[in-house]
Specification:
Helix content of chain B: 25-40%
Largest interface: A-B, 27 and 26 residues
Shape of chain B: globular
CATH architecture of the largest domain in chain B: 3-Layer(aba) Sandwich
Number of strands of chain A: 8
Number of helices of chain A: 14
Structural class of chain A: alpha/beta
Mean pLDDT of chain A: 95
Distance between the termini of chain A: 35 Å
CATH class of the largest domain in chain B: Alpha Beta
CATH topology of chain A: TIM Barrel
Radius of gyration of chain A: 19 Å
Low-confidence stretches of chain A: none
Number of strands of chain B: 18
Number of helices of chain B: 15
Strand content of chain A: 5-15%
Structural class of chain B: alpha/beta
Largest sheet of chain B: 7 strands, mixed
Order of helices and strands of chain A: HHHHEHEHEHEHHEHHEHEHEH
Mean pLDDT of chain B: 97
CATH superfamily of the largest domain in chain B: Aldehyde Dehydrogenase, Chain A, domain 1
CATH superfamily of chain A: Aldolase class I
Radius of gyration of chain B: 22 Å
Oligomer: heterodimer
Strand order of the largest sheet of chain B: 13-14-15-12-11-16-17
CATH class of chain A: Alpha Beta
Largest sheet of chain A: 8 strands, parallel
Number of domains of chain A: 1
Strand order of the largest sheet of chain A: 7-6-5-4-3-2-1-8
Strand content of chain B: 15-25%
């Protein structure tokens, strides 16, 4: 995918990736009307998902979660606990689907590999991937050499996916070429010795980009540079994921697909805590890019507390009554 | 199962407590009329809802006598602050009974519950709240100190927004100190009768609001009644013209809100995804049965294909079906007559060379339905570009320069609404300045607010509803 999308970026941009050329391409994107975008997102949020649709949605949400712990206080024990939760979300009901991936800091990847054991693998096969945040997450404020080393370390330790942050300072000061090159460089650092590559999620940190026009530009920049996923937030900045921002990024992904035939994933992260909210995202994905995007390689939720709320809803659907927080396990 | 085929989520009709038959509401009570009764059916299922009385000349006279008496003895004697109390009370009861009113409106009119729930009913309450606020501030309405009410107002409303149009008419009239005789449309009398119950519940003095049901003949009796001081009509241009003729020389004041063929102008620098949403809400809101619908899309030639492609894709996700289902986007056409009119005009559009495209949706067996439809390759001389269709049919034309867009937008006998889509503020203002339409939306469409005046140019009528202008239409010395 890396070569084809880069090739396509070349054909869209001409032969050079100069800043002038990038700016011209991004300036040609249509504007975003904030009021209209938010109204559309609110409208999608009014869909009423009941009975069989709700049951399907709940299982789908679980299978799209990147179960996350990104704390300074993370320990091997915490990662083992997280992995156990991801592998068996509801001990009372072993038929509950597994999450898509665990999302941890780079130095915890080895522990996640140990903890998952035989269940480490492709979520399409019902297994669990390991995603590592890298590139001086969450601020992205360090030298390129350190960011690339950070990435290579995580890949070497067994990460299947790298969640990088873009340099928002560079983006906001207009150094689009710098941001573009950095994404490309990280993409190259994702390549393993055997030639395969870890998937690259590009975190835009939309809460810091501030305007919808910026978010659309950054989405295109990340796709042009070869990102496999565009991701809203680190979870460390408020606001994190919102429905309008996710809708906007899905529209970018849809337009990119129409122009290039390439499917890029979207990951809203941070702030999605209830099944009710998560269902609004499923509706938004289905009605914007289509239902085929509801697969782990094209859509993820970056979340930690969401899983337990979804499990409570799942129990309610099967038993007919609500239990309580003591009937789901903490990780 | 596909997730997008959302499981049914119907709103329950269980909270409705309807009578089998409704008479007129005269002098604060439901009374039997002297005419025959007629039935109202649900346009989505063709099922019978209830029967209503056909208002005769005699019934209308009774209503006018009752309104005159209430005006002379009670309403004109009350202080503005006291009138406001009743209006605030009505507004609050509309909010309290919002769910019931939304279900009743959807049942009787055929529009989706999400529209009645999120637009019709909240706006109806907002209209009463807004004008309740004016009732004790008439001195500041710009007509000098202590402006006088007109007396008895005769009001005739259409079927497209039954309760909302009732509110547009009754709220300013009552705030200004008038009493009213109102006739709802014959296909949608249900919520007017529920409103009559609300008047009783609010303890509104008898005769201040009188509602007489029936069709054209009942309306004519109201227009021709000698003891009415003001006629307010919303409906078709043909009927409006007849009313103007009848009222001419009688001294009755008149406001007419008639048809439209709104132009929705999309420039090439428009926020395209939001413009597509706006085009859709402009013409498919309420199945296009909106007088201010953006039924003519004027799109800059260099983005025509892109806009049409995006529109078609988006229309593919609209859900047509049971209006009571909370996920329904497109409901039923209000009546068989209206469906036939839409069908005939669409056939004419095809015969004149327009290229028709309709969204592929399953049409239910029962009821009156028309799929969302686009016409491309439309010329300004085509019927679908000139006649008001009043249905979910969008005619797409192109332009090359702002001057051409303005000329084409104004090239219509109507002048009710227009929309402009552009990311450039200066262009929006420059174009809006030259459009001859009563309402112009920028980067949005079909948004209403009680503080904003609404009305037309040319064959779209005269007079304004909403805002201070809508209030002055019911005051002596006011603009009409």
């Amino acid at each position: 995918m890396s070569t084809t999308s880069t090739d396509h970026a070349r054909s869209l941009l001409g032969t050079d990736f100069s800043e002038t050329n990038l700016k011209a391409v991004l300036a040609g994107l249509p504007g975003v009307d904030a009021v209209g975008l938010e109204a559309r997102a609110a409208d999608l949020g009014t869909r009423s998902i009941k009975t069989s649709s709700k049951a399907w949605a709940i299982d789908k949400i679980i299978s799209l979660i990147d179960l996350t712990t990104l704390e300074g206080a993370d320990t091997p024990g915490k990662v083992h606990s997280l992995a156990a939760k991801g592998m068996l979300p509801d001990p009372a009901n072993p038929a509950t689907p597994r999450v898509a991936a665990l999302c941890v800091y780079g130095d915890m990847v080895g522990h996640a590999v140990d903890a998952l054991g035989a269940l480490h693998g492709d979520p399409d096969a019902g297994l669990i991937s390991i995603a590592a945040v890298a590139t001086a997450f969450p601020s992205g404020r360090s030298s390129r050499a350190i960011k690339l080393a950070d990435t290579r370390d995580a890949v070497l330790a067994g990460a299947d996916e790298i969640d990088m942050v873009i340099d928002r300072g560079a983006f906001l000061s207009g150094k689009l070429g710098h941001v573009f090159e950095e994404i490309q460089a990280v993409k190259e650092a994702c390549v393993r010795a055997d030639g395969t590559s870890a998937h690259l999620k590009v975190i835009l940190e939309t809460g810091e980009l501030n305007t919808y026009d910026n978010i659309r530009s950054a989405s295109w920049l990340a796709m042009l540079a070869g990102g496999d996923f565009i991701k809203t937030s680190t979870g460390k900045v408020a606001p994190a994921a919102t429905l309008p921002v996710t809708l906007l990024m899905l529209e970018a992904v849809r337009d990119w697909y129409q122009q290039t035939g390439l499917k890029v994933g979207v990951k809203p992260a941070g702030g999605i805590r209830t099944s009710k909210d998560a269902i609004k995202y499923l509706v938004t994905v289905s009605e914007t890019v289509g239902e085929e995007w509801l697969t782990p390689h094209l859509f993820r939720f970056g979340a930690s507390s969401l899983l337990n709320d979804v499990l409570l809803q799942r129990q309610k659907l099967s038993t007919g009554h609500y239990s309580g927080p003591d009937y789901v396990t903490i990780d | 199962m596909s997730f997008l085929e959302y499981a049914p989520a119907p709103e329950s009709t269980g909270l409705l407590n309807l009578r089998e038959h409704y008479g007129h509401f005269i002098g604060g009570e439901f009374v039997e009329g002297s005419g025959e009764s007629f039935a109202s059916i649900s346009p989505s299922t063709e099922k019978h809802i209830a029967t209503f009385a056909t208002g005769t000349d005699e019934d209308v006279n009774r209503a006018v006598v009752s309104a005159r008496k209430a005006y002379d003895t009670v309403w004109s004697k009350l202080s503005g602050a006291d009138r406001a109390k009743y209006l605030f009370r009505i507004a609050r009861i509309i909010q309290e009974r919002a769910r019931e009113l939304a279900v009743a409106e959807t049942l009787d009119n055929g529009k989706p519950i999400k529209e009645t729930r999120d637009a019709d009913i909240p706006l109806a309450a907002a209209w009463f709240f807004y004008y309740a606020g004016w009732a004790d501030k008439l001195d500041y309405a710009g007509m000098g100190a202590n402006p006088r009410a007109l007396g008895v107002a005769g009001q005739i409303i259409p079927w497209n927004f039954p309760l909302l149009m009732l509110s547009w008419k009754i709220a300013p009239a009552l705030a200004a100190g008038n009493t009213v005789v109102l006739k709802p449309a014959e296909t949608t009398p249900l919520t007017a009768m529920l409103f009559a119950e609300i008047c009783q519940q609010a303890d509104l003095p008898a005769g201040v609001v009188n509602i007489v049901t029936g069709a054209g003949a009942t309306g004519r009796a109201i227009v021709e009644h000698p003891d009415i001081n003001k006629i307010a009509f919303t409906g078709s241009t043909a009927v409006g013209r007849g009313i103007a003729r009848t009222v001419a020389g009688t001294g009755k004041k008149l406001t007419l809100e008639l048809g439209g063929k709104g132009a929705n102008i999309v420039f090439d620098d428009a926020p395209i995804d939001q413009a597509v949403e706006g085009i859709i809400s402009g013409i498919f809101f309420n199945q296009g049965q909106v007088c201010c619908a953006g039924s003519r899309l004027l799109v800059q030639e260099n983005i025509h294909d892109e806009v049409v492609d995006r529109l078609k894709t988006r229309l593919g996700t609209l859900r047509l079906g049971d209006p009571l289902d909370k996920n329904t986007d497109i409901g039923a056409i209000n009546s068989k007559v209206q469906l036939e009119r839409i069908t005939a005009l669409v056939a004419k559009g095809e015969a004149e060379g327009g290229e028709r495209w309709s969204a592929a949706c399953e049409i239910p067996d029962k009821g009156f339905w028309f799929p969302p439809t686009l016409f491309t390759g439309v010329q300004t001389s085509n019927t679908v570009a000139r006649d008001e269709i009043f249905g979910p049919v969008l005619s797409i034309l192109t332009f090359r320069t702002p001057a051409e867009a303005i000329a084409k937008a104004n090239n219509t006998p109507y002048g009710l609404s227009a929309g402009i889509w552009s990311d450039k503020g200066s262009r929006i203002l420059a174009v809006a300045d030259k459009l001859r339409a009563g309402v112009i939306w920028a980067n949005t469409f079909n948004k209403f607010d009680p503080a904003s005046p609404f009305g037309g140019y040319k064959e779209s009528g005269f007079g304004r509803e909403g805002g201070i202008q809508g209030l002055s239409a019911y005051l002596e010395g006011g603009v009409r």
